[in-house]
Amino acid sequence: MKCKAIHKKLIFFLENDLPENEMEEIKLHLAGCHECADFAEYMRKTLKVLNQERKPDVNPFFYTRVKARLENQTIKEIATPLWARILQPAVFTLLLLAGVYAGIKIGQPANNIQETYYAEQEIFPYLYEMAAEPIETFLME
Ligand SMILES: [Zn+2]
Questions:
Q1: How far, in Å, CA of 3 to CA of 8, rounded?
Q2: Could you tell me the residue ranges of all domains in the chain?
Q3: How many Å lie between the centroid of ligand 1 and the Cα of residue 32?
Q4: Which of 54, 25, 26 is nearest to 40 (CA)?
Q5: 58-110: pLDDT as tens digits
Q6: What is the CA(53)–ligand 1 centre distance, in A?
Q7: What is the value of pTM for the model shown?
């Protein structure tokens, strides 16, 4: 393999994303080629910085919301018996509230309790309305 071809594949090599024989080939080339070895080292450092910026704990509020959404999807995927279909809006609401509540708690400094209180008052009645509607529809049928 030529140096140019090595350079093109280096990023996949560093991510361990190549077939085994190509991984070996590049490893061998790097051992014998200073230019490519230097370039590989430079790329490894760059990738390390990028990976550090990608960590989920950089934005806890976003992470909480994604997690809450995943949990909701898991519940929807389970085959639902009749009682579960009635309970589902309530469970959904609880998960949503937990997500919102955790998000508010994490997202705000501790000395901002007053504002948190108002935010919750605005959100909660709206959520209860959303949860109540499917149950009423079900009982009317
Ligand atoms: Zn080379």
A1: 9
A2: 3-54, 58-140
A3: 8
A4: 26
A5: 566 666 777 777 777 665 555 566 766 677 777 778 888 888 877 777 776 65
A6: 30
A7: 0.38
